[in-house]
Amino acid sequence: MGLFSMIGLGGSMQANASSPGARNPADDFWYGRVGKASAAGVKVSIESARTVPVVRGCLQVLSETVAGLSFSVFERGEGDQRRKRSDHPVARLLANPNSRETSYEFFANLVDDLASHGRFLAERQSWGREERLWRISPDHFRVEMLPDRSLRFRITEPGRPERVLLDDDAWYIPLPPVQDGMTGRSPILQDGVEAIGAALALQRYANSFFANDATPPVIFTHKGNFADQASKENFLSAWQRFFGGRNRHKPGILEYGMGAQQLAHSNEQAQFLETRKELWLDISRLWRIPPHKLGILDKATFSNIEHQSLEFVTDTLGPWLELIERSVNKWFLDGAREYFEFNVASLLRGDIKTRFEAYAIARQWGWLSVNEIRRLENQNGIGRGGDRFIEPLNMVPVGNAGQKDGTSRAIAFLRDSVEAGDVPRNTRVTHVA
Hints:
Elements: E1 36-37, E2 43-44, H1 46-50, H2 53-67, E3 70-76, E4 82-84, H3 89-95, H4 103-116, E5 119-127, E6 130-136, E7 141-145, E8 151-155, E9 163-166, E10 170-174, H5 187-191, H6 193-212, E11 218-221, H7 229-243, E12 259-262, H8 267-270, H9 272-286, H10 302-332, E13 338-343, H11 345-348, H12 352-364, H13 370-376, H14 406-420
Antiparallel strand pairs: 1-2, 3-4, 3-13, 5-6, 5-10, 7-8, 8-9, 11-12
């Protein structure tokens, strides 16, 4: 067996030659990219896919948006009560995963690995009483399944000896649908190989077209002949001199029955722009990214962008966040009593007028307090009085009509406010008939 028949890196590296003697060192195979070939004849790899602007844009939108979210560990209490546990070891671990990365960098890499390779792996290390998480690049590990259906990970990082991690030593997330029970599905190398391959082929064709095009912008026709080569060159030189540079677009005159024909191709005529735009839309659908997030604003209006932004949070980000949250709950927390959650409230906030109108309605109908509203705006509370909820005076529980008139309810409310410290105790209450 030859050397190249034993090497595999995301696929076979064997040449198409039927025998070693048929291998030609000048064959294009040896100078091409390693990757999965598309129908367009372009080999698609993770790195080559990133050279397509819309692919890089999709990965950035997903990874940077998730990395910028705040997160917390919560503990379930009685009924629907929950308590935020900022001091929980898992909250501290994810806020400071290791000595080099911040939580932003860690989660950005996590989502990027999932969205590109379809899998993420981090090594769990104990550092004294604290735990550390170190990301392993998807290019540097291989997943293996043991007879008891547990997984182990063979790590081959550059400059370090090969090592093996077991389930207890690693945090592994495959992107569904999971293949063979252990490998996630790559949006680039599997689902998007044809669309991305076509985009790469278009880029290469466009580059070749503009770099090697030999089409002159204007061609002259003449019924006769120039006297010699020098006369022909003098005519072309004179034409460039009189109608080039600052003299562009000035009218000209052709004599002796000469004619001119324009041969230049515009981008629109070559259909580069339309084809590229359609390919970009197809690629953005791989990750369900709204076009306006990638700068494609052809059919965008203020109204539909606002709704698309909400759909981005619920339909695009939601499944990614759920995947990460449930993985943290399974491998790090007691899922019955504690849970991890990202806070997407900042992404769902409207403009200031819409926000304040919503706060006013919530405050008026008694399901948000002043302190809760101020916390949503990242402001400090106003003390115990800000924790009170209010209720319209003309609203009473069902079946209690007539038990308290409006004045009695107002006095009861004021008495409660005095006890809470909202108003001074020497406040006089005057009954008006």
